[in-house]
Design goal:
Layout lengths: L7 H6 L4 H12 L9 E5 L4 E7 L8 E5 L3 E6 L19 E6 L4 E9 L2 E8 L34
Family: Belongs to the small heat shock protein (HSP20) family.
Keywords: Plasmid, Stress response
Protein name: HSP20 family heat shock protein
Length: about 160
């Protein structure tokens, strides 16, 4: 059972979250999900992540990794120049393109291909100006005491 959520109240009451809300709406509209090639996303540290993708049969020359602003695109283009007659074909060799939405300040650190497993290491690096900082409280001068003025009232004898 599929439930469509209406995010319009959140759009009216939030500022700066448009990208996240649009991503949630787009995820609800996804009709077909291609699950090939299979992959894992692992959190390897406090700010470190790894994508491991099974790309058996692909060489480094047939794979491409591109990082745009907040999008990581992994694609594979198999060169089927050979004229081979298969009796059974169980190893997928089709071209693919998989996209991963990245949070702000997530960068690709490293990528490698070993034994048919493509690994992409990512790091969430928060810029220094955005990190919390401690403000030192100085021993400044004390505020001068304000003089209290008293209103003199004339007293009348009765």
């Amino acid at each position: 059972m599929r439930t469509n959520l209406d995010f319009s109240p959140l759009f009216r009451s939030s500022i700066g979250f448009e990208r996240m809300l649009n991503a949630l709406e787009d995820a609800g509209r996804a009709e077909t999900i291609d699950n090939w090639p299979p992959y894992d996303i692992v959190k390897t540290g406090e700010n470190d992540y790894r994508i491991a993708m099974a790309v058996a049969g692909f060489s480094q020359d047939e794979l491409a990794i591109t990082q745009e602003q907040n999008l990581l695109i992994v694609s594979g283009q198999k060169d089927n120049g050979e004229d081979v007659q298969y009796l059974h074909r169980g190893i997928a060799g089709r071209s693919f393109q998989r996209q991963f939405e990245l949070a702000d300040h997530v960068k690709v650190v490293d990528a490698g291909l070993v034994n048919g497993l493509l690994t992409i290491d990512l790091k969430h690096e928060i810029p220094e100006e955005m990190k919390p900082r401690q403000i030192e409280i100085g021993t400044g001068h004390a505020m001068p005491k304000a003089e209290t003025k008293q209103i003199e009232a004339e007293t009348q004898a009765a």
